[in-house]
Amino acid sequence: MPLTQAEYEQLYQQIRADVLKELEQRQSRTQQWHELKQRIDEFLSKYFDESQRSKKYKYQQGFYTLVRFVADVKRVEKVTDEHLPIAHGFLDELFSIIEKHRAPKN
Q: Which of the 8 DSSP states describes residue 64?
């Protein structure tokens, strides 16, 4: 049975409100995560070029897992301002250790 114009308008407005709410939630939680993601990406870009994208991606996932573990969150997108000092400090130490002990490139 087709919707009336009023029913269609009500459905449209509800879907629109739901989508805007979801986008707002995603933007608020990705702001903090974006900083960490960018740091990890910049670090890995020193070691992997575009031809090694899949290899770089695998390492990114490993770093994301470590950040999740340190921040004690289930998803990296749940990182908040509260977690940033801990996560950045961890990455500082981790990057330093990696650079110190990483095997030379062949």
A: H
Gap between the Cα atoms of 99 and 45, Å rounded: 13
Cβ-Cβ contacts under 8 Å for 65 (sequence gap 6 or more)? none
Please check whether residue 63 is in contact with residue 79, taking contact to mean a CB–CB distance below 8 angstroms: no
Q: How far apart are CA 103 and CA 106, in angstroms?
A: 9
CA gap 36, 76 in Å, rounded? 9
What pLDDT digit, counting tens, does each position of 52-97 carry? 999 999 999 999 999 999 999 888 777 888 888 999 999 999 999 9
pTM of the model: 0.66
